[in-house]
């Protein structure tokens, strides 16, 4: 039971071999994996996913980075999933992330920050639908 959030294990964390450790932290924090997919984004698909950021100065770099290596897309369920997951991952900037958070432990920089987490229930539904059909979710 509970609500859902959408997450990605990003290229830096995948390439560093941290996917398993991150999934372990996610499960130990009480999230249930409802969908999971290993894939590699093209810059165009990354650009579409992050379209809300297209006016930001870091948008071009972000699209290049997100398509530089595989990612793992996840739909996660827990009571109050969006907020609980944002607590688990910590601040976008790992230098500002609290001790014990996924980004504090695994992120390399504000861009290569190990994981993505949706910022609202509405965006969680949109982002989950971007990656998964109804037949790829339990
Ligand atoms: P995420 O939570 O996935 O949402 C947008 C992403 O843009 C963010 O994580 C980072 O990967 C990246 N990002 C955010 N702010 C910056 C920044 N100031 N410079 C570079 N990348 C950023």
From TrEMBL:
Keyword Kinase: yes
Name assigned to this protein: Nucleoside-diphosphate kinase
Pfam annotation, one family: NDK
Coiled coil: none
UniProt-listed Enzyme Commission number(s): 2.7.4.6
Family: Belongs to the NDK family.
Location of the Nucleoside diphosphate kinase-like domain: 4-136
Keyword Kinase: yes
Catalytic residues as annotated in Swiss-Prot or TrEMBL: 116 (pros-phosphohistidine intermediate)
First-tier enzyme category under EC: transferase
Residues annotated as binding ATP: 10, 58, 86, 92, 103, 113
Any one GO molecular function term: nucleoside diphosphate kinase activity
UniProt keyword list: ATP-binding, Kinase, Nucleotide-binding, Phosphoprotein, Transferase
